[in-house]
Design a protein that fits this description.
The chain has 14 helices and 14 strands. It has helices at residues 12-25, 62-80, 99-112, 161-171, 190-197, 201-213, 220-223, 233-244, 262-271, 280-287, 306-311, 333-339, 351-358, 365-376; strands at residues 29-32, 41-45, 48-56, 86-93, 119-121, 127-129, 134-136, 251-256, 277-278, 298-300, 314-316, 325-328, 341-343, 346-348. The protein is an alpha+beta fold. The strands form 3 sheets. The protein has a 7-stranded mixed β-sheet with strand order 1-2-3-4-5-6-7. The protein has a 5-stranded mixed β-sheet with strand order 9-10-12-8-11. The chain folds into 3 domains: 12-136, Trna Endonuclease, Chain: A, domain 1; 161-244, Orthogonal Bundle (Arc Repressor Mutant, subunit A); 251-376, no CATH class. Strand 3 (48-56), helix 2 (62-80) and strand 4 (86-93) form a beta-alpha-beta unit. The protein starts with 11 loop residues before the first helix and ends with a helix.
Length: 380
Amino acid sequence: MYMIQSMHMEQEGPALRVLERGAVAHGWSWRAVPHPAGPDGVLEAKGRRFVVELKAANSARGPELESLLADSALRAQAHARLSPDDEPLPIVFAPRLSASMLERLDRYALEFLPGLCWGAFDDQGVWHFPGLSVSKPPPRAKRRGRNSSIHGSGHPSPFSDLGQWLAKVLLAPRVTKDWLQAPRESASTLRLLAALSKVSLHSAARWSASMQDLGFLDSPEDAQDEPFRIHRVAEFLELWSSSLRPRRVVEQRVRSMAGGDFTSIVARLVRAQADPTLSLHSACDSLGVGIVSGAPQSVYLNSWSPSLLSQCGLAPAPAGGDFVLVLRQPSAPESLRRGRVQVNNVWCADVIQCYVDLLHYPVRGNEQAKAILGRLEWRS
């Protein structure tokens, strides 16, 4: 991906030259328009012809960039009306664009410039053209720990909370609706993927770049407008599950002070608005894919307190003592919440969540995970 050279932005001329170099680097055709009454240039990309209006800011302030984007959109639309073959393409430039600023511009364009292609770039390497399915995000500082890159990739791990949800969205067309709650529409652009997943375009772009680095996803250019599709699914799920192992899962074994079986205890948690979600083997049994009997019953809860446990007739089980279920705190609560399904009026972790949670689980987890994989019948 083309890296934009650092430059001094006191006028739009230097920005146009950088825009031209960037366009060529992406395989687009660029032609400047010298006439002062015309657009700044004509750009041809992916079989479409755009008249470009570029506005440059001296600093990346939200109100100023929104104003410049609106002004350039009006001017570009006026130029495009002169030819039926031309489309408007407003572009804004600032010395440095942050991820939050790109998300702000995304929201502004979605609300006030619906259906209009637009672009933004800076002198730090950002190249954001969502309508053309191209988005190189701002570089992120390297972190240690679970969010660091995988296998030397230059991008963050694709297994963040929202990253796990994005993976579920792309896998959803190959999973029955009874096992995963997610949109089934295929996505052939980053914008559509973001819209289907209800995440920011920038989040979708970062995740896509990480997946491309690992070879599990084709770039938009390589895909040639085909829907995004995760390759080597079994290998991908193995890597996903392995990425969860270093994360400490908060668990609490509890006993029932009020009696009752597992179903009645979950019902008490539901009535207390604790929002339980069946997990691990309990979820597999509820989904109809379970093969393990006698495994500990478990539910996901975002949090629990002594007062909640008391309200539900539960109490912490002593070390080594008998217990009726295990409370687990999800490490990816957003992905869990969005993908879970209801079975008999009780929330249940989706089948993909079950697989990645169980693959390295000590109580016959690998055996259950393999059974799930056989039921899913992935195509590579």
